[in-house]
Amino acid sequence: MVLFLDMNSYFAAVEQQDRPQLRGSPVGIIPNDCDTTCCIAASYEAKFHGIKTGTGVLEAKSRCPTIQIIISRPDLYIQYHHKIIEAVETVHPVHEVHSIDEMSIKLRGPDRNPGVYRQLAMEMKQAIRTRVGQWLRCSIGIAPNAMLAKTAGEMVKPDGMVVIEPHELPQRLYTLKITDLPGINVGIERRLRSHGIYTMPQLCTASKSRLRQAWGSILGETWHDWLHGHDPHIKPTRRKNIGHQHVLAPELRAYESARAVAIRLLMKAATRLRSEGYWCTKLTISIKPMDDPHWSLYQNLEPCQCTVRLLHHLNTLWYHRRTEFVFAISVTLGGLVRDACVEQPLFPHERKLTELAHTMDKINTKHGHAKIYYASMHDARKAAPRRIPFSTIPDLALPDHS
User: Fold this and answer.
1) Smallest Cα–Cα separation from 305: which of 234, 233, 361?
2) Integer Cα distance of 64 and 82 in angstroms
3) Model confidence over 140-162: pLDDT tens digits?
């Protein structure tokens, strides 16, 4: 059995815990201070008014004139994340962290007893309330595998606790919509419909071979196992790329100003590349102009950790194609290779440039963001602040600014 813990309205709840004046009020969290952006989180008081993730700021204010719009503070959410992990582990070791607000616990031996795991769930909720904060609530699902446990946790929010027992499967799922299952979006639902699968009972009773055909891969067989309460081993995926993307502030959307932001994104990605012990063999930039379709360009490389070399290739790609105004940029370092698999550069000056990049990382880690940086990113050194990806937790030890 697996216990899946999901924090409720996490970013908004952290703000309410940290700022008592927000408690009990509708709160919307936004990434940037402008009315053209959208909420990336909403408190339950805001959800009562129909405000949710993706609701535009202007619409949120129209639906709820008293809503408190708060600019996100990623570093604070990461700090609370680690406090929550510590609180949960006073009750039971965490098996896997899935995102900033999700984690799972493997239940083995006596912990698989229904009375025991229900008690563990209640103790975890209490540990979070007493050790981290009263305004932080979580929903817990318990089921034979993590997918079903996450599904169970979604059934009752906020502060719910739902158990799906093995003998209840798959019939317990029949009242759900297919898109209620984590990982099945409208695109996958459309594919399933093209194979004659429209309802949850049809999905649950389909054979392994039919689901493999519907998914177009062995993942269909894995879904068959999940739906019937099995917990198949999933081979860990290998990291393929490291990158950052950013929607530009209006004052940085001119093409030359946007280039400084691209350099800032490249430096952030290169710092992560080195800190995680990788070299890249491909650099890709993607540009979304204000009024035209987005476009991408890439350059294949010899294994590289050197920011100077990467900047040279970025400039070559940047001036290969121009646009007057840029709305969004992404910079991706791909084709990753581990340190142990790469021979050091042959020529001394190339080795020195790589050593220089590592030295700059150490200085910025010790003394703070942008204490030393390349002049070409000067105008954008405060752009693209830290964000929290869905499935990874940023390392607060790496330099950035709030």
Assistant:
1) 361
2) 33
3) 999 999 999 999 999 999 999 99
Radius of gyration of the chain, Cα coordinates, nearest whole angstrom? 24
This prediction's pTM: 0.74
Is the pLDDT reported for residue 375 higher than 90? Answer: no
Domains in the chain, CATH or no CATH each: 9-73 (3.40.1170.60), 241-380 (3.30.1490.100)
Confidence of residue 202 (pLDDT cuts 50, 70, 90): very high
